[in-house]
């Protein structure tokens, strides 16, 4: 057994972190590059951030992505909470294991398959009921809600599993009927899990390229789609600036999710 | 200790309701059975509990006492049987409609609400006006001496303070019946003793019927007006603490409550006002001053409490109820000493003696040869 942090441990940790973060740090550094060439250092500058905010195509895509992320994270939080609640509270019945497996399947399903199957579904639905008409923001929102729901369901389910059931019994004993019990006791106690599920969904939706590529339509490109099409024509320093901002946004959301998850444990302390 | 001995001024003459044959029970449990799959947690239990009682359900873990309590609260539906509270059949009434409140073993305080809001929770569900809720919460918090902590969250309180919040929360709705699940289980010994008397004081002041579940026989003896001992889902005996200790009805109760020396024997004579039992272990006859109404030659157990035995160096001058042996162990406990005496038959007997004198000079010690004796009314004969 290794007691304390030996030099071997420190070295391998250091190597791992360099491996993970060196590319990202390089990208952030080059976003402050004066030069027009991505690989040549020309001194410090915020020039490309200015260019970025004047680029209407990118700003438009950013707005669409933000809108989609907000709506689908919210829908996923509501539906995922319901799914998690049902899965943890229903008594054992035949097929419960399969059902909970189904809810979490999108977590491991290749995105290509999810995207393709949703596209086929939307096309079939359009020819049968005429809704959703064409592909666009609506279909992306539905698609993102579908796979984000799974994340929220898992987080909420595990929170409910660790929740002291006597709290709910105590509330009933004091006269709370099932509906007020849910809104006054259960919901506040699982709200940190829902919030962190929401933040997770928000970042997943903001990041997604594959599924959105399948189910979006003309004039509805999300930010990752625009970036991807741009880099195929050659990387511009503008994209570096954009990527830096996205890393910032995602890091803030993920750190917030972790902090919220941690705080919920404080309630259960002695 | 029963209520009648705690407050002789109010109940000096009146018989407590559970001793009256015609009294109306407040809680009537009728042939309740609860099964979880193949496992029978509570097996055909019938029990009457009267107004203002402090009834203790006593038993080990898995005896069914908690399941019985949860059925009274409404968290479990009985498989069969009825629960009648204050004249109304409540067997299948949901918990939020029962005039019953419960104090949980874990206290189950809502972690996201302040002390005040925890206590107010039940009153708000009744839809009482804000001013009245405020007043009643303040009153009950004063009663449990927690007024100054009203705005704290539960995780900022000590164990004893949480216990009092839980108590206040369950009392504030003025339930007809209060259920307490191991109410003192999580407290340390000194706090537990103080709280025991606090509970008894509250119960007398408020006039609420209490049902307490506990595995601690000392706690049950101190608190209860009556005790029901449970084992394997069945109530083995229901009695007042004194009777439970002095007249256990079977071996389980005798051994579960307090310490006891148990000797196997056979009945020799059995008359209306006397009986004799021969015990091989004691190498002689046990003489009793009352009949035991069973067949002669029937095998029985004779139970003698350690403190009912006299231990002397000199032979006692009675023909019966005596034996002799050698001291194998001595434990000095301060107020009393415990001796283990090995009889000639090889059987070990436990004897306790109060240390009445500071220095008795001739103190009994290891390997001393001693005589044990007891009175005809000290032993109990058990047939089951």
UniProtKB/TrEMBL annotation, chain A:
Q: Does the keyword Repeat apply?
A: no
Main location as per UniProt: membrane
- A single Pfam family it belongs to is BPD_transp_1
Q: How does it sit in the membrane?
A: Multi-pass membrane protein
Q: Which residues form the ABC transmembrane type-1 domain?
A: 62-260
| A GO-annotated cellular component | plasma membrane
Q: Looking at the keywords, is Transmembrane helix present?
A: yes
Q: What GO terms describe the biological role, i.e. biological process, of this protein?
A: transmembrane transport
The UniProt family comment states: Belongs to the binding-protein-dependent transport system permease family. CysTW subfamily.
Name of the protein: Putrescine ABC transporter permease PotI
UniProtKB/TrEMBL annotation, chain B:
- Write out the GO MF terms: ABC-type polyamine transporter activity; ATP binding; ATP hydrolysis activity
What's its EC? 7.6.2.11
**One GO biological process term:** putrescine transport
Quick one: where's region Disordered? Answer: 1-20
Specify the enzyme's EC class, one word.
translocase
Which terms are listed as keywords in the entry? ATP-binding, Cell inner membrane, Cell membrane, Membrane, Nucleotide-binding, Translocase, Transport
Catalytic activity line of the entry: ATP + H2O + polyamine-[polyamine-binding protein]Side 1 = ADP + phosphate + polyamineSide 2 + [polyamine-binding protein]Side 1
The ABC transporter domain extends over 27-257
Q: Where are the transmembrane segments?
A: none
Query: Does Protein biosynthesis count among this protein's keywords?
Result: no
- Provide the function of this protein: Part of the ABC transporter complex PotABCD involved in spermidine/putrescine import. Responsible for energy coupling to the transport system.
Q: Name one GO cellular component term.
A: ATP-binding cassette (ABC) transporter complex
InterPro entries registered for this protein in UniProt: AAA+_ATPase (IPR003593), ABC_SmlMolc_Importer (IPR050093), ABC_transporter-like_ATP-bd (IPR003439), ABC_transporter-like_CS (IPR017871), Mo/tungstate-bd_C_term_dom (IPR008995), P-loop_NTPase (IPR027417), PotA-like (IPR005893), Transp-assoc_OB_typ2 (IPR013611)
Q: What is this protein called?
A: Spermidine/putrescine import ATP-binding protein PotA
Q: Does the keyword DNA repair apply?
A: no
Organism for this UniProt entry:
Marinomonas piezotolerans
Quote the Pfam families the UniProt record gives: ABC_tran (PF00005), TOBE_2 (PF08402)
Q: How does it assemble?
A: The complex is composed of two ATP-binding proteins (PotA), two transmembrane proteins (PotB and PotC) and a solute-binding protein (PotD).
Q: Which gene name belongs to this protein?
A: potA
* Alphabetical list of Gene3D superfamilies matching this protein: 2.40.50.100, P-loop containing nucleotide triphosphate hydrolases
> Record's family?
Belongs to the ABC transporter superfamily. Spermidine/putrescine importer (TC 3.A.1.11.1) family.
